Amino acid sequence: MDVYGTPLKPSLHEWTDLIEGIVETGDSPLVGEPIYNLNREDTREFDAIIIGGGAAGRFCGAFLKARGGRALIVDKWPFLGGSCPHEACVPHHVFSDAARELDLSRLMAGKLWYDKEWKDRKVSILEVRDLFLSGRGLAHALMNLQTKDQLNVEYILNTPAKVIDKNTVEIAGETFKTRSIVLATGARTQLPDIPGLEQKGVYDFATLISDLDYEPSKCVIIGGSKIAIEYGSFFNAAGIPTTILTRSGLMSPNSLHHVDDDLRDFVVDGMKVRGIEIIQGIEPLEVTGDGKQVSGVRYRTADGGEAFVEADFVFIATGEKPLSAPFVDALGVEVDGRGNIQVDWTCETSVKGVYAVGDLIGPPLEMFKARKTGTVAARNIMGEHFEWDYTDFADFLHSTYEVVWMGLSEKEARAKYENVVIIKMPVDGIPPEDFALPAGDGSMFIAMARPELSGFFKIVFDGDSRKLVGAHYVGFGVKNAFQYLEVLMKQGITIDELGQVNELFLNDLIPQLCRLRAGNAVLRDL
Ligand code: FAD
Ligand code: COM
After folding, report:
1. Can you name the residues that pair with 163 across neighbouring β-strands?
2. Annotated active-site residue in 84, 219, 331, 498
3. Are both 428 and 507 inside the same structural domain?
4. Do residues 452 and 512 share a domain?
5. How confident is the model at residue 25 (pLDDT cuts 50, 70, 90)?
6. Same-domain pairing of 356 and 414
7. At 418, which CATH number?
C-alpha cells in the first residue's frame, strides 16, 4: 500500500481501521503487505535508515529530518511509536490509574459514597485491559499521521528490515542504500530459564495485552523489576491475591539507583499493608501445572529450602533483553554480556556509521532515554558532535502511589557531604497514624481517613553550600514537578531559592518547608 504524497490521507480514523484490521482482527488484505510512505521521486541518498520505529527510532527520524536530512524509518509493525503505545507504558499507566482508584475505593470503603463492599470486591482486569485496547488504535494512528503529515518523515511499515551491510538494508525484497544506519529494535522480556513457561496462565506485559482471556484468581509474579511492583500493585488492587517472588529486594540498588531507604520502606511496607505477599531472596525453579494450565510456582527459598505457591496466573517480570542478535551477525557490532549494543556517548556503535539507540543499548529502559538517544544519533549523523551521558536521571515508578526520586539518597549524601540537612514528612518521633502529612495534592482523602498512608517526602541538602542534592516523594502528581526540579538541582539551586518559589497547592512541601528553614544562617533538619 502506498500512502505517500496525499496529505492527511489516510485520515486518523482510516489509519485506525487500517492498523486494527492488521493487528487486532488479522482479517485485512494488508496483513503482510508493506505500507510505503516513501518519496520515490527523491533520488537523494538516505542520511539514515532507522531500523525500528519505536520512541527511539521515531524521534531519531523526526530530528534528522528537522536538521535537513533524509531519514527512512522501517518497522515490522503497521504503526510507529513501538512498544510504548502498543503494550508497555500506555497500558502500564492505565493499570496504575486503575490501581490508584481501586486502592482509594478500598481505603475509603464505607465512608462518603464508597460502598463498604469495596473492601472485599474483586473487579475485572479484562475490562481494564479492554478499555486500553479500545483506545489503542487511535494512539497508533496518531503516530503514523503525525510522522507523515506533520513531521514529513518517510517510512515503510508492516515489514521487517534486514541489514545487509553498514550501507545497505533490505526491505520487502528491495535494497536501499544509506549513508548510516540507526538500530532501534528495542527489547523483550527476558524469560527465566525454568520449565513450565509454555503453559496457559503464564504472561508478561505483552501477552497480558494480546492473550489474556480469563479472570485470574491467584497471581504469582516472578521478578522484582519496576514492572513487578507496578503490575503486582494493579492485580492486587483489583482483588487478585498476589505474591511477588524476587531474587533481590524490591527497589534494590541492583535494579534502581539513588533509592532512599526510607522511601523504599514506605513503598514496600505500603504494598504489604495492602495484602501483597513479598518473598525475597528466592530462586524460581519451575512453573508447575498439568502441561496445559499452570498451577503455581516452585522455588528455592532464601535459606536453601524448597517451597511452592499456588496460582492460576503467573506474571513474568524478570527484566528485558535487547533484540540485538541480527546486528551482531550482520555487522559485528559489539555487545555486552546481556546482548546490549555497546555505544559511545554519541550513540555510535563499534562499527563506524552505525548507531544504536533506545532499549537496544541497555539501561535505563525509559522513554526519556529512548527518545533522547534517538536525537543524539540524529545530531551526530547530521554533522554535529554531540555527546549525552544518560547514567544519572530522575526516576519514578508506580505502586498504588506515584513514587518519584532524584539526586542522592540520604545515605549517599552522608557519604559525600559532611553536613547533610534533611527535611522530611512524616516527622520522626510522631506515630504516623497521628500525623496526616505530607497530604500532597491528590492525597487528601487518604490523609483524612488513613493518615499513616498519606505519603512520604524527603529532601536532602548539602548544608554547607545550601544546595539541593536529592529529593524523594511518594504521593501523587509530582512527576511533572520533579522533571523540572532535576534541571534546577543540576544547576545548583539552593534552599534559599527554593523558598522563593510560589506554591500553587498549599501543601507543596518543597517551597513552604524550605521557606521555613531558609532564614537560618546555619541550616537545620526539619
Ligand atoms: P520499542 O518501542 O520496543 O521499539 C522497537 C521497534 O522496533 C518496534 O516497533 C518493533 O516493531 C521494531 N522492530 C523490531 N525488529 C525489527 C525489524 N527487524 N525490522 C523492523 N522493525 C523492527 N518507560 C517510561 O519512561 N515510562 C513508563 O511509564 C514506562 N512504562 C513501561 C511499562 C512496561 C510494561 C514496559 C515493558 C516498559 C515501560 N517503559 C516505560 C520503557 C519504555 O517502554 C521503553 O524504554 C521504550 O518504549 C523503548 O523504546 P525503543 O524505541 O527503544 O523500543
Ligand atoms: C509515545 C510513542 S507512546 S513516541 O515516543 O511518541 O514515539
Report:
1. 169
2. 84
3. yes
4. yes
5. confident
6. no
7. 3.30.390.30
For residue 109, the 8-state DSSP code is T
Closest C-alpha residue for ligand 1 atom 34:
88
Cell triple for 117: 463492599
* Co-location of 293 and 335 in the same domain: no
Residue 30 CB coordination number (10 Å): 15
Cell of 301: 527459598
Per DSSP, what are the bridge partners of residue 219?
242, 313
Residue 328: give the domain boundaries: 12-85+136-188+321-381
Is 457 among the domain residues?
A: yes
Instruction: Give the whole-angstrom CA distance, residue 445 versus residue 450.
Output: 8
Is the pLDDT assigned to residue 509 strictly greater than 90? no
> Considering the entire predicted model, what is its pTM?
0.97
Question: Rg for the chain (alpha carbons), in Å?
Answer: 25
Position 7 pLDDT exceeds 90: no
State which of 89, 169, 210 you would mutate to test the pocket of ligand 1, scoring each by most atoms of that ligand within 8 A of its C-beta. 89
- The secondary element (H helix, E strand) that includes residue 176 is strand 174-177
**Cβ of 309 below 6 Å from ligand 2:** no
Note whether residue 16 is domain-resident: yes
C-alpha 358/C-alpha 352 separation (Å) is 18
Domain end call among 266, 299, 318: 318
**Pocket flag, ligand 2, residue 88 (CB < 6 Å):** no
Does any ligand 1 atom lie closer than 6 A to the CB of residue 377?
Answer: no
> Whole-number mean pLDDT of the chain?
96
Do 174 and 213 sit in the same domain of this protein? no
Contact indicator for 99, 217 with CB cutoff of 8 Å: no
Domain harbouring 72, CATH code? 3.50.50.60
